[in-house]
Amino acid sequence: MDEAPNNRASLAKGAKDIAKEAKRHAAKNFSKAVDRASDEYSAHRSYNRFHNEDEEENHYNTYTQPDGHSADNAANDEEGASSDATEGHDDEDEIYEGEYQGVPAYNDGKTQDGHVALGQPVSDSVKSHKELENERQADEEELAQQYELIMQECGHGRFQWQLFFVLGLALMSDGVEVFVVGFVLPSAETDMCVPNSGAGWLGSIVYLGMMFGAFFWGGLSDKVGRKQCLLISMSVNGFFAFLSSFVQGYSMFLFCRMVSGFGIGGAVPIVFSYFAEVLAREKRGEHLSWLCMFWMIGEIYASAMAWAIIPHYGWSFSMGSAYQFHSWRVFVVVCALPCVCAVVALTFMPESPRFYLEVGKHDEAWMILKQIHDTNMRARGQPEKVFTVNRIKIPRQLDELVEMESESGNSISKVFFRIKSEVHGIYLNLMKCFNYPMQENMVRLAVVWLTLSFGYYGLSVWFPDVIKHLQADEYASKVKIHNNERIESFTFNFTLENQIHKNGLFINDHFINMKLKSVTFVDSTFRSCFFDDVTSVGSYFRNCTFVDSFFFNTDIDESKLIDGTEVINSTFTHNKTGCQMTFDDDYSAYWVYFINFLGTLAVLPGNIVSALLMDKIGRLSMLGGSMILSGISCFFLWFGTSESMMIFMLCLYNGLSISAWNSLDVVTTESFPTVRRGTGFGFCNALCKLAAVMGNLIFGSLVGITKAVPILMASSVLVGGGLVGLRLPDSRANVLM
């Protein structure tokens, strides 16, 4: 009777070596599978179809003995007959490093210690790159289905709303950045004495910075993560936007605004990618549309602040004549506040769990998904509800060939080398977006982005300039003309405005503490006149003569004395330096900002309608219909002969076009797989900014020349882009691959 136990013990000892090669703790895995099955049964939810592959691997890992005893039983019997403590420490008995936090161990089917288990598939080293990519594609499709079920279990609640407002602040900053340029452009160029040849560069340089920023940050977010890239890009934007309000030189101001635009360029592609990856399919269209409202809120914020701050010249200070801090600089500082708030709030939010899964970080993704589930369940009053997901499919990680920089290089060369490597990786990832089967859809998306942006930004420049042109014509029609006047020994201590003086003679007159506002002197003579503390805005002396005159603390210089004006035996002392400007002198400042504010408010109804109907009528119907209606509305501009009519058409156009923007953002987000979503969206957004630069240059050059060309151009581009948008594949039923 004693021989039987001894034989069994010897068999168990012999089976130990074999079981160690094929995961000798299969019994422990079996008990975990039983616990997992019981948990899933208690939660009335099953993920068994995603575990079939793991169960097959466990089947291979079970070694059957000739006497009918499996290696599982042999291992269990051995534990009673032989102690591991007497044989040394076993690596497989180590506690899984995430187990103390409740993170389930992820088993990808790979063997340990470099051994090949019985029944395992062929090693990756003997497979072609195409085969590995096909396997990864299959894994991504399986993950997409499982992730959708996980997000349904996590629910939509407090966590999504918290992230909604945080990312909304970032999107709001992008809207502010776009409109702050147009609001400060006239003031900044006047304040910094920018010649006509340099005017307009501010608007173009900011859009160029945003174009490169969208491509770079969007692509980088696919490599290092959504949260980290968004934090860095928003920090760059906030720092240089704040710095730009203090610099005095125009070239330095251009540089700061360009880098600020480069930073904020990453906001749109990262924000939509980030938020879409924590939404279930049935919630995605509606809530991404609600998120678009923050861009409109940014417009309203910028318009309201410009209306409230810029025209108030008293909100300024100076340090001598060298440093001037006018009210438009205060406006720039105020516009940087949403970006600062977004950076602070974003530090408290987690990384996208979907991104972690794509790069193979199972534990981090599982913990964030559990955080989402627990946060939402506590908000619903169900804190006892358990997160039942144990294992999540991880796509196969493909090795990449990375060029290494020499250790002997200096820090600057290493930084440039790292940037070069990242840009090259982004480019390679972008090229995959043009591969089959995405090639045709990518081209259509690019066409829609270009046409919608060209029409929208082009008309956004053309509308205000046309209104200003109409105002200038009305202002010029009220000019007062004085001919052959003779004024002697008179003191001018009041403002002269919108006047033309021809063939005048001024003898021994005093111009003291006064302003010349849009006043032109033509063929006039000034003899023994005294000018003290005179400020001129839009005023000139054409072919005039100054004899024995004295100028003290005035801004009258060579730029104001034009067309052959002569200065004979006259003295200029303590001339005012810099460009003298006051916003009180801008007769249309309040009105222009108020018009932009009205145009922004007109977007609100379109935003609400698009959010409510996005999932009901479909993304493509809304995209194509909105662009076509926007193009048709442009034809009515032909009848806009008055200022009030142009304002009405501006509001109508903005209200119709916003639905196209919202639906295009949703379609673009859903059209790319997770590993290329930031890159693809960033490329499309870069095309948007390129079209904005083209629209600014083309439409801006046509102001006051012709009305037919801008109207026909915008209408045809928008209608054509809408028809192309209707040919895009419907993404409403897509899961995020």
From TrEMBL:
InterPro entries: LD_SV2 (IPR055415), MFS (IPR011701), MFS_dom (IPR020846), MFS_sugar_transport-like (IPR005828), MFS_trans_sf (IPR036259), Sugar_transporter_CS (IPR005829), SV2 (IPR022308)
Membrane topology label: Multi-pass membrane protein
One GO MF term: transmembrane transporter activity
Main location: membrane
PROSITE patterns: MFS (PS50850), SUGAR_TRANSPORT_2 (PS00217)
Gene3D superfamilies listed in its UniProt record: E3 ubiquitin-protein ligase SopA, MFS general substrate transporter like domains
The keyword Membrane appears for this protein: yes
UniProt entry tagged with the keyword Amino-acid biosynthesis: no
Domain of life: Eukaryota
Membrane-crossing segments per the record: 163-186, 198-217, 229-246, 252-276, 288-310, 330-349, 442-463, 590-613, 620-639, 645-667, 679-702, 708-728
Record field: compositional bias (Basic and acidic residues): 33-43, 126-137
Disordered, as annotated region: 1-90, 103-139
Major facilitator superfamily (MFS) profile domain boundaries: 163-732
Compartment(s) where it occurs, according to its Swiss-Prot or TrEMBL record: Cytoplasmic vesicle, Secretory vesicle, Synaptic vesicle membrane
A GO CC annotation given for this chain: synaptic vesicle membrane
Keywords recorded for this protein, A-Z: Cytoplasmic vesicle, Glycoprotein, Membrane, Neurotransmitter transport, Phosphoprotein, Synapse, Transmembrane, Transmembrane helix, Transport
GO biological process, one term: chemical synaptic transmission
PANTHER family from the UniProt entry: SYNAPTIC VESICLE GLYCOPROTEIN 2, SYNAPTIC VESICLE GLYCOPROTEIN 2C
Homology family: Belongs to the major facilitator superfamily.
Name of the protein in question: Synaptic vesicle glycoprotein 2C
Lineage, uppermost ranks: Eukaryota, Metazoa, Chordata, Craniata, Vertebrata
